[in-house]
Amino acid sequence: HNITCKVGYPYLKTAEEISIKISFQFNASYLLENATVHVYATSDSEEPPETLRDNRGHVTIPVKYEVGLIFVSVFKEHHVIIAANDTVPTAINTPEQIGDEVTLHYRIEKGEHFPMPNLTLQILFPNITAVKNTLLYLTALSHSQNAICETSYPVDPLKISAGKPFVLSKIKEPTKDTIMDCDTYSCASINCALVPSDVYQVNVSLRVWKPTIIKASIHSLTLVAKALLRSENSSLILRNDNQKLETMIKISKELPPGTVPLWVILLSIFAGLLILALLIFALWKAGFFKRPLKKKMEK
């Protein structure tokens, strides 16, 4: 496209500047990596040949297209409750003895306007504690045919689903943390290459390793699993809200009968002190503490 503009009519003053604003509208069916603008300045007046070289210039602008895909997780939170009478067995013989199952479902759908780029999906979840006790155990991984997935942590590495018993370690769990995520703890990863398609589906099945939670001296724990989506095409980018999804796995332990939670004790103490302060304030306002001691001494 050629655009001709008459500027500085009838003439430009010395050191005078002219600003020109150009707006572009791009065709979604024909994607450009760059937009180049060439500018030429001509004049009706005569100009010495040695100054003609600065009468032209160009600027190249990289073009980024925001892909309007849909990236969702079926569940944002999972809640797991461990009974007060649960104990640590000597061995695990079936997947059900490991603990409750948590399934992560991820779905990606193509947007309306732009083509789907090559994508990479990375799923991270905390799998062990600092002393190598298991937190989340990977039992199954399934995905659509247009996804190619590899794991850093094998599916069912102990072969428990195949009937192989696993003798539990007696190592205690010293952790005091109530939140574990991949920023501070070791995490297993699942990396999926997604070839351009309309719909993708990735499902991850995990088991909460109940013996570790029972051995830990904490009453609640939140495990944070996250999925990171990245475009492999520098021109087709993702919105910020389509780049990361987090799933909270909230685990709580029931207290034994007759046990009062610490927060109840602290709340009761605080309420008692507050009532005492209000009572003292009411007595002070009523003049209870204003005794005529000085007058009695004078008499």
UniProtKB/TrEMBL annotation:
Pfam families: Integrin_A_Ig_3. It is a single-pass type I membrane protein. The chain crosses the membrane at residues 260-284. The keyword Transmembrane helix applies. GO terms for cellular component: external side of plasma membrane; integrin complex. Residues 74-247 form the Integrin alpha third immunoglobulin-like domain. Keywords: Glycoprotein, Integrin, Membrane, Transmembrane, Transmembrane helix. The keyword Kinase does not apply. GO terms for biological process: cell adhesion mediated by integrin; cell-cell adhesion; cell-matrix adhesion; integrin-mediated signaling pathway. It is found in: Membrane. One of its GO terms (molecular function) is integrin binding. This is Integrin subunit alpha 1. It comes from Hypotaenidia okinawae.
